[in-house]
Design brief:
The chain contains eleven helices and ten strands. The chain is α/β, with parallel strands linked by helices and about 325 residues long. The protein has an eight-stranded parallel β-barrel, surrounded by nine helices. The radius of gyration is 20 Å and the shape is globular. The structure holds ligand PBG. Ligand PBG binds next to loops.
């Protein structure tokens, strides 16, 4: 008889034959900073995740460095919003300030990624600007993304997370960065990003004013091939890393993309995925840490090299603790 159980007999043996690893170096920690806040504030639906003040986030970054989390992804919440998302590309807007201070303080100790999208900054909450009929205007939005890219690059971002799902955004931004002399600033392209109900708590995190949905620009969850096209286009246009989002209901996509991608693949375990685990654990229905590890390993096993997760800091510490 062939006995697969033989390799499961002890924890050392299981460790020796394990196919997948999860290390701090694989993680990106998203961080929210809210303009005008005087005390950090917990986000509804995301227990343990804070909207930081312009001071408190820097202390949090110290902790990331200590825990060997290599990278941070910044989202900023402005005090004022308008139709055109002006604060997003204001050289001294909240997101640029956050990036600038982080880069000044941490240099290359952290890979600083800034979210590049307008939704936190527009009064209507869409990821782009609207045309006369209220539809999201792709090409007008690209021009604003290019301005935002230059501002964030000059503020000191190492990479820009292009999360708006406008056609041609990676190519347009790459060109803008290059003409501005920012040739070393990379693009983490949200290549396959689905219109998802799992972004619910994120809308609280950024106090989004969106009414309606993003289905005219984010992908339809019934489709798979479309993701391969989106990934191909982003790589062709100069993406340095491609990301799939959300992660858990899309492991098939992560798996397929990781097979075809010539650049590293990331996956984003989003706010609603976080919230489900936290809520179930708080209710005593699941064992929290083992569930988190199992989920994050599943994303690695599916083929993602990098995982963007709200658990990054905690899990990095936990991994260190468990390493003899
Ligand atoms: C939009 C953006 C969203 C998230 C990251 N960037 C929201 C959306 O597309 O509606 C969601 C992240 C999460 O839910 O954790 N710029």
């Amino acid at each position: 008889m062939i006995r697969p159980r033989r390799l499961r007999g002890s924890s050392k043996l299981r460790e020796m034959v394990a196919e997948t690893s999860l290390l701090p170096q694989h993680l990106i920690q998203p961080v929210f900073v809210r303009e005008g806040l005087t005390e950090p504030r917990e986000i509804a639906g995301m227990p343990g995740v804070l909207q930081h003040t312009e001071d408190s986030y820097l202390e949090y970054l110290d902790e990331l460095v200590l825990a060997k989390v290599p990278s941070v992804m910044f989202f900023a919440v402005p005090e004022v919003r308008d139709e055109l998302g002006t604060e997003a590309y204001h050289p001294n807007g909240i997101l640029s300030r956050v990036v600038r201070l982080a880069r000044e303080r941490f240099g290359d100790q952290l890979v600083i990624i800034a979210d590049l999208c307008l939704d936190e900054f527009t009064s209507h909450g869409h990821c782009g600007v609207l045309d006369d009929h209220g539809a999201v205007d792709n090409d007008a939005t690209l021009e604003l993304y290019c301005k935002m890219a230059e501002v964030l690059a000059k503020a000191g971002a190492h990479m820009l997370g292009t999360s708006g799902m406008m056609d041609g955004q990676v190519g347009a931004i790459r060109k803008a960065l290059d003409s501005a002399g920012c040739i070393d600033v990379g693009i983490l392209a949200y290549a396959a990003k689905y219109a998802s109900a799992f972004y619910g708590p994120f809308r609280n995190a950024v106090e989004s004013e969106l009414a309606g949905d993003r289905k005219t620009y984010q992908q339809d969850y019934r489709n798979r091939k479309e993701s391969l096209l989106e990934v191909e286009l982003d790589i062709e246009q100069g993406a340095d890393i491609v990301m799939i989002k959300p992660a858990l209901s899309y492991l098939d996509i992560v798996s397929e993309v990781s097979k075809i991608s010539s650049v590293p693949v990331a996956a984003y375990v989003v706010s609603g995925e976080y919230a489900m685990v936290e809520a179930a654990a708080a209710a005593g229905f699941i064992d929290r840490l083992p569930a988190i590890f199992e989920m994050l390993y599943s994303v690695r096993r599916a083929g993602a090299q990098i995982i963007c997760t709200y658990w990054a800091l905690e899990i990095a510490r936990e991994i260190e603790k468990r390493t003899p």
